[in-house]
Design brief:
The complex is a heterodimer of chains A (144) and B (201).
Chain A: E1 5-9, E2 12-17, H1 19-33, E3 40-45, E4 50-55, H2 63-83, E5 92-95, E6 100-106, E7 110-116, H3 122-140
Antiparallel strand pairs in A: 1-2, 3-4, 3-7, 5-6, 6-7
Chain B: E1 2-5, E2 10-18, H1 25-35, E3 45-48, E4 54-67, E5 70-78, H2 86-92, E6 98-104, H3 110-126, E7 136-141, H4 155-162, E8 170-172, H5 181-196
Classes of the chains: A alpha+beta (144), B alpha/beta (201).
Chain lengths: 144, 201
């Protein structure tokens, strides 16, 4: 079994992803999300670093800036939730004219960002994201 | 929280510029962006208020080449310096791997520097990180103003106020004009990567 390797010294935590683990993550992103028609999907950590990203070949987004902003946005929204007495908001979604963006927490440390167009309904996307999130949790937290 | 990708042989680490308001954190990143424009493939991201103050953070990703066969990608961030944005500063510090503390050399800002350093220590401890253990570099900014006759804190005072216990490397700099801006960045990158070195096999 692949073990997630977390190096933790002097209060500094480093996540080390093996090739096998990353291949599994890529397979989930491709099969559960790209294959149903989303434009791009990116797994990031809450610090704004990119773990893995897949797209349909037509996207030219600045993913590093997007990851930094998504992590900041998610942190801000989580803090807003706690200010009004909620644990978290269950739907984080921005709707555009051509592209929409959906955020989903995967464990406490990771975030899945999905960009999709009109071809995919929000309900179907949420279903597929929930399935993918479950599989990603198994890869990111083996044995949990 | 640095990420090491063994498939792509890539390391990503997060460095945050921290310090009191109007101390020059954003100016540091702007100078780096101008200086290394050819090596930075994206635009610098800034979230500002209408009054041109940092509201959330600035963000600048920079690729610095290879160390031990790994491509090193550093994400530079600033925090908003204004006192009222404490919760935002805490958010930006999440997963931080290295810190530049940009102290304001103006004599009138002595107290603000000390308070900001205290807030840094408190915010790090909320993530179970210790300011005396995380890679940290001090930058005493605005030293160029000495030539204009503006009262500045002597470096010895800044060292005594901020760095007497931490004993971190420090630089006298001018973020506006450039002296020691790159050196500060290089030092924190070296220290941050060095702290990950044992994981780079």
């Amino acid at each position: 079994m692949d073990k997630q390797y977390i190096s933790d010294t002097d209060g500094q935590r480093t996540y080390i992803f093996t090739p096998a683990q990353l291949s599994k993550i890529e397979a989930v992103l491709a099969e559960d999300l790209l294959d149903v028609g989303v434009h791009s999907v990116t797994l990031i950590d809450m610090a704004g670093n990119i773990i893995s990203t897949m797209d349909n070949g037509e996207n030219k987004h600045d993913l590093y800036s997007l990851a930094a902003l998504a992590a900041g946005n998610f942190g801000a929204v989580s803090t807003m939730a706690s200010l009004i007495g909620e644990d978290e908001f269950s739907l984080l979604f921005h709707k555009g004219k051509k592209e929409n963006i959906h955020f989903s927490k995967v464990t406490d440390e990771f975030l899945l960002i999905t960009i999709f167009g009109k071809e995919v309904s929000l309900g179907f996307l949420r279903l597929k994201v929930a399935e993918a999130t479950e599989k990603l949790t198994d890869v990111l937290n083996p044995g949990s | 929280m640095a990420i090491i990708n063994l498939k792509k042989k890539e390391v990503q680490a997060k460095i945050v510029y921290y310090g009191p308001g109007r101390g020059g954190k954003t100016t540091n990143l702007e100078y780096i962006y101008k200086r290394f424009r050819s090596r930075i493939q994206t635009e610098m991201v800034t979230i500002k208020t209408h009054g041109d103050r940092t509201l959330f953070f600035d963000f600048l990703p920079i690729e610095i080449g290879r160390i031990k066969g790994y491509d090193i990608r550093i994400q530079l961030y600033t925090v908003p310096g204004q006192v009222k944005y404490e919760s935002t500063r805490r958010l930006v510090l999440r997963g931080v791997d290295g810190i530049v503390f940009v102290a304001d050399s103006l004599a009138v800002r002595r107290k603000e520097n000390v308070l900001s350093l205290k807030s840094l220590a408190d915010n790090l401890s909320s993530y179970k990180k210790n300011i005396s253990e995380i890679p940290l570099v001090f930058q005493y900014n605005k030293r160029d103003l000495l030539d204009e006759g503006i009262p500045l804190l002597p470096v010895e005072w800044l060292e005594k106020d901020l760095n007497s216990k931490l004993e971190a490397p420090s630089f006298e700099a001018s973020a506006l004009k450039g002296p020691n801006v790159v050196q500060t960045m290089k030092k924190i990158i070296i220290m941050t990567i060095d702290s990950l070195r044992k994981d780079l096999t």
